[in-house]
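We modelled the chain as a single entity of 402 amino acids. Its sequence is:
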Amino acid sequence: MAYELITTSTQLDALCKRLASASVIAFDTEFVSEHTYRPELCLIQVAAEGHLALIDPLPICNLRPFWELLAAPGHETIVHAGRQELLFCLESVDQSPHRLFDVQLAAGMVGLEYPAGYGSLLSRLLGERPSKGETRTDWRRRPLSDRQLEYALDDVRYLEALRRELGDRLARLGREPWFHDEMTAWQAEVNGSRTAERWRRVTGSSGLSSRNLVIVRDVWHWREREAERRNVPARQVLRDDLIVELAKRRSADPKQIGAVRGMERGDLRRIIPDLAKVVAQALETDERVHPENIRTDTSPQLTMLGQLLSSALSSICRDAEVAASLVGTASDVRDLIAYRLAEESSGKGRSFPPPVLTEGWRAQVVGKLLDDLLTGRVSIRVANPNAEQPLVFERHDNAGDD
């Protein structure tokens, strides 16, 4: 297939000028994230109005013109599973690509699986089979083979056709406004993740006291700074389980820290003095500013209702032709139940943000029906155990009336 290989800043400037008038720009990236603090961008693939291009970032010092092109108005930008592509653009020019359309997200909104792989969408929607065999390529190595380049180009040359097919389905189902809202919310979430307090995601930290959590938080922040300084993945500096163990022990004594099982490696022994200082500072933190301990309701009633309504959610989504995994998780269902129960018992439900299933298009698809199930206005029964859709929802108009 014919394509242009961009390896210099001059070539990149020329490409960006040609693409400035394009109405649609599809792009993808190849990157390696296992060895560095941030993913290392190794290749950019572009398809625009019949033109294919590969941009090699390794010899090009400044890629800003390309990201500025994507952020500029006047075109639609198409991606598949474009979280990292969005982050590359945000980190370069602090803007999202203009009118971003993610075909993976669109597929979930019209009833296809979510998250759907690129090959699966090509096969199901276009009857095409992309190149295979390069999923484990080290994209940092040069030169890239013809087979590798063909594999990379396949990731973009069908994106516009996928967008047209999915756009037609969104229009037929009347879901273009839903998709627009979801794309906006998704981009805001990705942008917010750059500054969010991700320390709460440390594996094993849930359920710890606020006194322990302040150590988790401060050691996590130290680990991020150290990983960025060394340009290595954060968990290569210190594993999550070791952070949690330090928090549980609540000791700034270097000997106690060194006695933690897993701290025997030479590189970990070298950071013990730094960890001791961080833990000591955390222990001196005023209790009034300790992080809040977020507890999860584990009552048997909530567990039982969560299991029942999670099954109901899957059935509702199948009828509505939208991927259940896009609408919400079992945790989202539990959040809705806990919110409604708190609201009913003490009016405190509205003291914290409404669950995702009570807002926007998700409320239209499942939130209101789940509410009716909780209040008895709707019941579930098994109509035909052998049917593709065995459950039936029956409405009781007078439920709750005196």
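As a brief sanity check on the tokenised model: The chain has a mean pLDDT of 92. Residues 343 and 351 are 9 Å apart (CA to CA).
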